[in-house]
Structure formats: structure tokens, C-alpha cells
Amino acid sequence: MAQRWKMHDLTEPQLRQAFNAMAALLNDLMPAGPARDGAAMFVLLVFDDPGLTQFVSNCDRHNMIRALREAADRLEQDEVIER
User: Which one of 5, 18, 22, 77 has the fewest beta carbons within 10 angstroms of its own beta carbon?
Assistant: First the structure.
């Protein structure tokens, strides 16, 4: 079983290594999309304490912020998009 950790116990280099590994895994698993390398764009939010949220993304910051705002609005309104 993998060792469990809390983000506030990690150094900045350890956080960067962990998040880059998660991003690489997600990028490999995602279907094709518009991101720079052809994978679907994603934003991964990870938190272990309220107010301490880290993220990793494969899209530019402006698009990531816009996507997070849109997602927060839908969540607050309990909006479900049928597929």
C-alpha cells in the first residue's frame, strides 16, 4: 500500500514532484482533446485542510481559472449537465 501523506508535511520540491507525477498519469489516461500535447485539458485540485488547496493543470492559467469559476457556479446551483 502506498504511503499516505499530508500536503502540509511536504516540502515545495516534494509537492512539485508529487503533483507532476499525478499530472503525467492523468495526461496519459485522458482521451484526446485540445491541450498542447493532444490530451484533454484537466485541473486537479487536492486539499487536506480547508484553505490549503494545491492544483496541477495541463492548460493555461486563464482557461483553468475560467473553468474553475464555471464549475463552482454549477455546483452552487446544483446544475447537472446531462450527457
Answer: 77
Identity at 66, one-letter amino acid code:
R
Report the domain count for the chain: 1
pLDDT digits (tens, 9 = 90+) for 35-83: 556 556 788 888 777 777 888 888 888 888 988 899 899 999 998 877 7
**69 assigned to some structural domain:** yes
The whole-angstrom separation of Cα 13 and Cα 57 is: 17
Number of residues written out for the chain: 83
Please tell me whether the overall predicted TM-score, pTM, comes out greater than 0.70 for this model: no
78's enclosing H/E stretch is none
Burial 41-73 (b: 16+ CB within 10 A, else e): bbbeeeeeeeeeeeebbbbeeeebeeeeeeeee
